[in-house]
Amino acid sequence: MTPVIQTQNLSRSYGRTEALKGLDLTIPERAIYALVGPNGAGKTTIIKLLMNILRPTTGSAKVLGHRVSDVAGEVFTRIGYVSENQELPEWMTVRYFLDYLRPFYPTWDRNLEQHLLRQFDLPLDRKLKHLSRGMKMKVALASVLAYRPALIVLDEPFSGLDPLVRDELIEGLLERATETTILLSSHDLAEIESFATHVGYIDRGRLLFSDEMATLTDRFREVEITLNQPEPLPANFPATWLQPQAAGTVIRFTHTEAANGAATTELAQAFPNARDITLTPMTLRSIFLAIARSSSTQKGREA
Amino acid sequence: MSQVLHIFKKDIRHLWPEILASLVLTALFVKTYPSTWAVGYRISRLPDIIATIVVVLVPISWWLMTTRLIHDESMVGERQFWITRPYRWKKLLAAKLLFLSNFLYLPILIAHVLLLRIAGFHPTSFLPGLLFNLLLIFFILVMPTIALATVTSSFAKAILTLLGVIVGVIVLAGLSSLWGQSIPDVDGGVTLGPVVVVALGLSVILVQFATRNVRLSRWLLVAAAVMIAAGALDWPQRAFVPMEYPQSSPTSTPVNLAFDPNPSHHLEASPSADDKKLSIRFPIAISGVASGTAIQAESVKVLITAPDGRNWSSSWQSARQYFTREAGLSTINVDVDRTFLEKVKDLPVQVRLTWALSRLRAGKTGQAIVSDEEFAIPGNGICAEQGKDYNSSLACRFPMRQPRLTRFAAMWSRQPCSQTQSPDATSVFASGWIGTLDNSPAEFGITSVWTSALYFPGQGFAQRDGKGRTYLCPGTPISFTEYALVDRSQLVQWFPEMKLPYRIDPPFLNLLDQD
């Protein structure tokens, strides 16, 4: 299956600041890919590069089979982009905004548009400048969903919205998820945990991992080993075991390759004096925290 | 095409107040501007004040409308909704140009046609001029506005940029008056600079619409600004002067110019616009102008050398006078440094004048008869007497441009026109020049009707006792001769050793006292 988005060594610098470092990313068709990371991590930079809003310093990318530099004009009939800080033509009413956009898209679905208007309860005769932030996001999303794009790109779409509006937007999005690929960025794990199929974690311009959600939750386990007597941590601690901590006879760490059924055997061999080995499934939040902390510790060591 | 029309309709819907303002001002312009053609036009009269204000407001309304139009799909920034929508840049640009065609060009074209009709001209006869002026309006007003709008993200920034441009123009004008010269007209410099600036301006528009590469576009605009600044300070033109005005050889001199030794035509010093200089008037004897030709003195520069070797030279100064076969004498005023004059006041100095001359050939001739009412003159003009206060000239209006360079001449009567003209009453021959050597079908302007005076130097004015007054009476024929450029050259003229005046002569001191 041809990936909808594929990047190779994609980088972007602002002066001497590297906002994005050598991104290799593949997003398959029909995925709901959540790009998560703290504020300023480089999520928006990635999205703007993919939308050809910014030009990469180095590297290349393809979106829907087009080189990213060619993502313009007609290509946008198949891409829907919504951003939290997008400037809409505020002088337009909701009705005129949709009327104006409709002829740009050969695939615009009037019935779907009507459905979305009802679903999002949009005030047709109100000017965009008089709408709340949540309402504006709904209008923007409706104007994207109505032409059934092959790729929907959302940059922090739920940021600052009240939970009710957020749920409405997610519901509207998910109704169309079977026919499209979605890339969205968020700094809030809880926002995307329930519906993302893929997740990538970016920090300080570097993609720390990118995986399917199911694989990710399968792979990561919190390991607690109880030893017969206190022992120092083994010197050759594998790189796949993150954030090891020893407290008396208890050693704790995050196992990043625990999906393999042999993990328990592997652990038993590594800790022959173990009295008890427990592998606990982790929430997405704990996984990210472990990765983020490990990454920061490693950086500290490198520094 | 549908996308072009779609964006066009959206722009009309959004910018109707700007469109309305521009149309109202254009209509007001047509209504009020003809008052400025009237005999005795003075800016102090209310209709003339309104007309002048409207003339200023029309281009401002164009700037406002054009800037707002471009900002509707702003080219600067990363947050505009339209940049991730299926806009085709060529269609977007076409939509904007369609808008300007409908709401800027069409109204001003109609205004120009109406003004021509009001002025008594047939608009269809001046179609090339009408279209050429629209082209000039695009390159001089609209294109820079579009280019600046494409590199500014908001209306406030566009206003700041415009203010910056205005300040820049004022600074340039100041620098130009300090360092600029009255470089003689050169075709090369006149053509090359604007062509480069226009090319840069168009590049900015294309780069912005196609790629929104603001950094590159701003550099291109900086390059254009440097070119304009260089042009204002005459740098490109200077390079063309030696090429377009080669030194004339003694055998091919278009005119012989010499110092006029007649003691009654003495050297005179008068105040100069520059306090550090004195304007010295040199009497000139003219000869050798070939039949059917005239010489236009474009500029002059002077080198003064004292016996002890000290010298002072000027840059090019404006000369703007015409030497004809009939005129045997003339004068030229040259600004000279006061300090230098003080230093050499008692010394006989050598003066060398270098003239930049254009040789002109007489072409079409024609005649007009002075009338109490308005009367047509050759070269598409319509003239009328100016009135009592301005009776040395006729007020004329011309379609699309000032007339081509034309010499006019008439016999002025020494008797008032109301008196029966006695056959033995002597008349005075008077002639003057009007127009330019430019051959383009129109001059840049938001008007299609140009006014100018047929000024007969020295006629019409009387001394205090009323003596010397002459009159241009109805029925008097005025002859017109059009002149075209033949060639250009530089002519060096040496004066005999002479002492130069170093202070303002009494008649001018009297004038200063009266001020």
Indicate the structural class of chain A. Answer: alpha/beta
- Amount of beta strand of chain A: 25-35%
Straight-line N-to-C gap of chain B: 67 Å
Helix content of chain A: 25-40%
Mean pLDDT of chain B, to the nearest integer, reads: 87
Arithmetic mean pLDDT of chain A: 89
In percent terms, what proportion of residues of chain B is strand?
15-25%
Molecular shape of chain B = globular
Architecture overview:
The complex is a heterodimer of chains A (303) and B (515). Chain A has 303 residues and is of the alpha/beta class. In chain A, 30% of the residues lie in helices and 30% in strands. Chain A is built from nine helices and 14 strands. Chain A has helices spanning 43-50, 94-101, 110-120, 133-145, 163-175, 189-193, 213-219, 263-270, 284-302; strands at 5-14, 17-27, 32-36, 58-63, 66-67, 79-83, 151-155, 181-186, 198-203, 206-212, 221-227, 241-247, 250-255, 274-281. Chain A has a six-stranded mixed sheet, sandwiched between helices. Chain A has a four-stranded antiparallel sheet with strand order 2-1-4-5, with helices on one face. In chain A, a hairpin with a 2-residue loop joins strand 1 (5-14) and strand 2 (17-27). Chain A is elongated, with a radius of gyration of 22 Å. In chain A, 37% of the residues are buried. The mean pLDDT of chain A is 89. Chain B is α+β, with helices and mostly antiparallel strands and 515 residues long. Chain B folds into three domains: 2-241, no CATH class; 256-361 and 488-514, Sandwich (Immunoglobulin-like); 371-475, no CATH class. Helices cover 40% and strands 25% of the residues of chain B. Chain B has eleven helices and 15 strands. Chain B has helices spanning 2-14, 16-32, 46-71, 89-118, 127-150, 155-179, 187-211, 214-232, 235-244, 338-343, 506-514, and strands spanning 256-259, 268-271, 277-287, 293-305, 311-313, 317-324, 329-337, 350-369, 375-377, 381-385, 393-399, 406-413, 427-434, 449-455, 477-494. In chain B, strands 4, 5, 6, 8, 12, 13 and 15 form a seven-stranded antiparallel sheet that branches. In chain B, strands 1, 2, 3 and 7 form a four-stranded antiparallel sheet that branches. In chain B, strand 9 and strand 10 form a beta hairpin. In chain B, helix 2 (16-32) runs antiparallel to helix 3 (46-71).
